[in-house]
Specification:
Length: about 270
């Protein structure tokens, strides 16, 4: 299923760093401003980019510093222009959103005030910024350039998501339930035990997990069991989805167990006696 590219809400802040001494002072002031607002320094994950980036871009990545506060993230590094004059670009992100929230806009301007109080001047964007797709924009400008999808688009996405789950149910879940039902006949003759085995095994083996075929889609649903070996390397939000998907599959599997395995031993005994 093809999906439209969604940009994480982001805004930038550009600080002059053309003199070595000025750069060192600016970096120290940036750290102090971020810590004062409750941001925590995170380990630089540049090694994840090592196989795919060229050496000059990788060197730039190694210089980046990353701070996190809840769903908000700030990372920055010193960038050098062709005339050897440098500047510091801070990228401010709000994750799990389509647009900046009121909280995100407020936090961005808190940072701006902290920087201003410490003498860090906000530079305007240049032609080089635009050519490099790094324009300095505010949260309000991002929201204007990336409006929320209209109701018709939301309905279309919901319909495509529902269709993918229906296809997954027909191709994976239902055949899986039938196979597990046959297997339970060899494990136990108790209807209650067979239902519990069917529901539990289904929620552990068959719950769906979306796997993007490329960075922005299409998305393929696969049994969650195939992703369990990689679960510890996944983001926290994705791990939460694992639990939600397994839980919903358990609820559906309980209903399926009541339907696929005879609902009442007494009724089955009555039919046999007749």
């Amino acid at each position: 299923m093809a999906t439209k590219s969604i940009t994480v809400p982001h805004a930038n802040y550009k600080i002059d760093a053309s003199i070595d001494k000025q750069r060192l002072i600016a970096l120290e002031n940036i750290d102090q401003a971020l810590i004062s607002l409750g941001f925590n320094l995170q380990m630089n994950d540049w090694k994840a980019w090592e196989p795919i980036l060229e050496q000059d871009r990788l060197t730039e990545k190694k210089q980046e510093r990353r701070y996190v506060k809840g769903n908000f993230e700030v990372f920055y590094g010193v960038l050098y222009q062709t005339n050897n004059l440098g500047y510091i670009r801070l990228s401010f992100y709000e994750h799990d959103k389509r647009q900046f929230s009121e909280e995100g806009i407020g936090l961005y301007y808190q940072l701006e005030r902290e920087f201003s109080d410490r003498g860090l001047v906000h530079l305007s964007e240049t032609r080089d910024d635009i050519k490099a797709s790094r324009p300095v924009v505010s949260p309000e400008e991002f929201n204007q350039q990336n409006p929320l999808p209209p109701f018709r688009e939301k309905v279309k996405y919901a319909a495509l998501a529902a269709l993918s789950f229906i296809i997954y149910g027909v191709v994976i879940l239902f055949p899986g339930w039938l196979a597990l039902r046959r297997l339970t006949t060899y494990i136990s003759k108790s209807y209650s035990a067979r239902r519990c085995i069917l529901a539990g095994a289904s929620s552990l083996l068959l719950f769906p997990i979306p796997i993007p075929m490329s960075m922005f889609g299409p998305v393929l649903l696969v049994p969650g069991m195939l992703m369990l070996p990689f679960i510890f390397g996944l983001p926290e939000q994705y791990i939460n989805y694992f639990g939600l998907s397994a839980g919903l599959t358990l609820v559906i599997s309980i209903v399926a167990a009541l339907w696929l395995i005879k609902s009442s031993p007494n009724n089955a005994l009555h039919r046999t006696s007749r």
